[in-house]
Amino acid sequence: MMRYALFLLILVLFAGVGVSRPDIKIARPDAYFFTASPSAEKYPPEIVDPFKDLTIEAESAVLLDLSGDKIIFKKNSDFERPLASLTKLVTAAVFYDLVEDILSAENAGLPIGQESASIVIPITSEAVKQEGDDGFLVNESFRAEDLVSAMLVRSSNDAAYALSSWLQKKSNKPDSLWFVNEMNVFVSGIGLHQTYFLNPTGLDVDDYLAGAYGTAEEMARLFSWLIKNKFDIISATSGPQITVYSVQGKKHIFESIAVPVMPIPELISAKTGYTELAGGNLVFAFGLGVGRQFIAVVLGSSYEGRFEDAMKLYAAASRYVKNL
C-alpha cells in the first residue's frame, strides 16, 4: 500500500513540472529566398556605343555586319565617289563569266577553274603602257588565273588591260567598250544601280572624269556578293604576296599593298584603290570569332589615311562584338 501511495505522489509531482521545449516557428515561404541589400545589388555593365567617337578621314565609309546583313556604321554611304582600282573586282568577275560563256564550246564539260587554267594570255605592248610598272615584259604569257591574281593583289593595270583586251579579241567584238559595257550589265544584274564603269582599270580618264563611280554601301554589297558567290577569285588577296611564273618560266612576285600594313588576324580579303580623283580607297572583309564576319569600305581618304581608317573601323567592330 505504501508503494502504491509513493507511486501516485511521484506522478503528481511530474505532472506539475513544465517540460521546456524549443520554440519552433514555421518560416514563411519567402524566407527561403535571399534578398540582397541595396549595396550588394549587381547592375549590368553600361553598354558604350562603339561608334560614338569614331572619326575617319574618308569622305564615305560603311561597316557591314555579314551575320545579319546589317549596316552598323555609315558615313555618306550613298554618295557616288570615284572607285579607282576597286573597279578590278568587277573586271575579274566579268572576265570569268565571259570566259565561261565564250569558251564553253571549246571546253565542253570543264568547270570554270579548269577552263580558265587552259587559257594563256600574252602581255602586249599596249598592256605594258598602262600606268604603273609591275615587271611584265612584252610577249610574256601567263595563265589567266595568274593574271587575275596579279591584278587584284598588286592592282596591276597591265594585267587588267591584258585580260580585257584578250577577251574582246577572242569574242570578235569590234567595240572597244564591249567589255566595259558587260561590267555595267553585271553590276546592274546584282542590284548595284549607283555603280558604273568607263574602263576596266579604274584609272582616271582625265583630270575631271574618273574611270568608275560607286558608293561605299554598294561596294560593301559587291564584296559581300563576291565572297558568297566567287570567293575563289578574291581569295589570293588575303596574303602578303603571291608568286607566279610566266609560260616562259620567268618568276614574278607581287606584293599586296594592303595586307602588310593591316595587322588583322582574321583578314578574309582586301582590295585597294588610289587615283588623284578618288583619293585612297579600300574594301576589306574580316572575321571576329566564330560566325562573325564584317566588310568595311572607305572611299575618298588619303593614300595612308585609308589604312588608318581601316584599323579604326576594325577596332570599332571589335567593340561592337563585345557588346553583343
Strand content: 15-25%
Number of strands: 12
Count of individual helical segments: 10
The CATH superfamily turns out to be DD-peptidase/beta-lactamase superfamily
Total domain modules: 1
Unreliable residue runs: 11-37
Question: Largest sheet at a glance?
Answer: 5 strands, antiparallel
Report the average pLDDT across residues.
87
Q: Tell me the helix content.
A: 25-40%
| Radius of gyration over C-alpha positions, nearest whole angstrom | 35 Å
| Level-1 CATH class name | Alpha Beta
User: How would you spell out the order of helices and strands?
Assistant: HEEEHHEHEHHHEEHHEEEEEH
Distance between the termini: 92 Å
Name of the CATH architecture: 3-Layer(aba) Sandwich
The CATH topology turns out to be Beta-lactamase
Strand order of the largest sheet: 2-1-12-11-10
Shape: globular
Structural class: alpha+beta
Describe the 3D structure.
This protein has 324 residues and is of the alpha+beta class. The protein has a single domain (60-323), classed as DD-peptidase/beta-lactamase superfamily (Beta-lactamase). Helices cover 35% and strands 19% of the residues. It contains ten helices and twelve strands. The strands form four sheets. Strands 2-1-12-11-10 form a five-stranded antiparallel beta sheet, sandwiched between helices. A three-stranded antiparallel beta sheet has the order 3-7-6. It has a two-stranded antiparallel ribbon with strand order 4-5. The protein is globular, with a radius of gyration of 35 Å. The N and C termini lie far apart (92 Å).
